[in-house]
């Protein structure tokens, strides 16, 4: 399933739920610069696993936006919607090993169970699954598949994971308490992001994942799946977020406008400024070339591919 991680391979993996916006360009540029600064490869993956949320043609429009900004992948993009067989193979392994179990709970069931435990999450907080179906379905029909978030199958002790982020530094999370047993395949049959991204990162040989800080708390789930599936662990770098006027992450759901690419070089300079790079190139080519050199200037003295090394990004 894995192509290994001996050489640098990075990726930009957008969900085609609408056009790229300013926050998307920051993430795309950061991953591209990191790959080029390391002399590595840069790939694009269209994460359209949630097809009902992906308008027709949005993927091609996003690819055209990247092309206008000079961010060209080294291989043809892949689409997650075409890779279900690989995800099914991974799920079958987790089922066979006893880590995945069927869940009959609806969202209303989970909400009711959490309310009974006085454990309803706050705004934007994770809804921790209460483990209702861990011991069986009680005659109900399984709707989804979940992964046990425990350190072992027998005693089912809490599992705490630690990792080193290239910007955020040392990180830890008690996966059992912070997330709980998370979904691998949804009740509607669609594949969950966590499983799909881990399978695809391994299959594409991704060595370094550079993405927005809002995805940092996804990392422990992905690390756990990598371990259980016997896949290599990439290095991670989470970049500062672009915020909307309301102080929340700029996103399509938050009213983010599509990128204005009437002047792609200006858009790239603006994205670079958010990463702490103050570039002056007049053309796309000049901005990108200058950006690679500036990104190298942020490198720590240690080997750029050594665990924990990376870039001292400015907020």
Automatic annotation (TrEMBL):
**What stretch of residues is annotated with the motif 'KMSKS' region?**
249-253
Identify the keywords attached in UniProt to this record, alphabetized: Aminoacyl-tRNA synthetase, ATP-binding, Ligase, Metal-binding, Nucleotide-binding, Protein biosynthesis, Zinc
Q: Tell me the Gene Ontology biological-process terms attached to this UniProt entry.
A: glutamyl-tRNA aminoacylation; tRNA modification
What region holds the Glutamyl/glutaminyl-tRNA synthetase class Ib catalytic domain?
11-258
What EC designation does it have? 6.1.1.-
Q: Which InterPro entries match?
A: Glu-Q_tRNA(Asp)_Synthase (IPR022380), Glu/Gln-tRNA-synth (IPR000924), Glu/Gln-tRNA-synth_Ib_cat-dom (IPR020058), GluQ/Sye (IPR049940), Rossmann-like_a/b/a_fold (IPR014729)
GO-annotated cellular components? cytosol
Task: Give residues annotated as binding L-glutamate.
Answer: 11-15, 47, 193, 211
'HIGH' region, short sequence motif: residues: 14-24
Q: Which SUPFAM superfamilies match?
A: Nucleotidylyl transferase
The note describing how and how many cofactors are bound reads: Binds 1 zinc ion per subunit.
The molecular function terms in GO held by this entry are: ATP binding; glutamate-tRNA ligase activity; zinc ion binding
Residue sites binding Zn(2+) per the record: 103, 105, 129, 133
Q: Superkingdom of the source?
A: Bacteria
Binding-site list for ATP:
252
Name what cofactor the protein needs: Zn(2+)
According to its UniProt record, which protein family does this protein belong to? Answer: Belongs to the class-I aminoacyl-tRNA synthetase family. GluQ subfamily.
Query: Record's NCBIfam families?
Result: PRK05710.1-2, PRK05710.1-3, PRK05710.1-4, queuosine_YadB
Q: What is this protein called?
A: Glutamyl-Q tRNA(Asp) synthetase
């Amino acid at each position: 399933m894995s192509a290994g991680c001996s050489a640098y391979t990075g990726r930009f993996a957008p969900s085609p739920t609408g056009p790229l916006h300013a926050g998307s360009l920051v993430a795309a540029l950061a991953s591209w610069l990191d790959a080029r600064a390391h002399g590595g490869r840069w790939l694009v993956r269209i994460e359209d696993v949630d097809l009902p949320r992906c308008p027709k043609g949005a993927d091609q429009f996003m690819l055209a936006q990247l092309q206008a900004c000079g961010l060209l992948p080294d291989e043809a993009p892949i689409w997650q919607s075409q890779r279900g067989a690989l995800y099914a193979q991974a799920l079958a392994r987790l089922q066979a090993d006893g880590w995945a179990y069927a869940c009959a709970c609806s969202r209303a069931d989970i909400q009711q169970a959490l309310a009974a435990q006085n454990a309803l999450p706050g705004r934007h907080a994770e809804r921790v699954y209460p483990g209702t179906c861990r011991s069986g379905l009680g005659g109900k029909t399984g709707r989804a598949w979940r992964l046990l978030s425990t350190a072992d199958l027998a005693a089912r002790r809490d599992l705490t994971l630690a990792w080193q982020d290239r910007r955020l530094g040392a990180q830890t999370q008690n996966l059992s308490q912070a997330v709980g047993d998370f979904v691998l395949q949804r009740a509607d049959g669609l594949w969950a992001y966590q499983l799909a991204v881990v399978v695809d990162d391994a299959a594409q040989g991704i060595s370094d994942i550079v993405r927005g800080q809002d995805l940092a708390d996804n990392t422990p789930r992905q690390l756990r799946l990598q371990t259980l599936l016997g896949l290599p662990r990439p290095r991670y770098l989470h970049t500062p977020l672009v915020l909307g006027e309301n102080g929340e992450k700029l996103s399509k759901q938050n009213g983010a406008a599509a990128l204005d690419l009437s002047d792609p070089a200006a858009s790239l300079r603006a994205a670079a400024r958010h990463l702490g790079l103050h570039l002056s190139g007049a053309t796309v080519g000049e901005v990108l070339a200058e950006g690679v050199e500036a990104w190298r200037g942020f490198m720590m003295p240690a080997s750029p591919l050594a665990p924990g090394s990376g870039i001292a990004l400015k907020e």
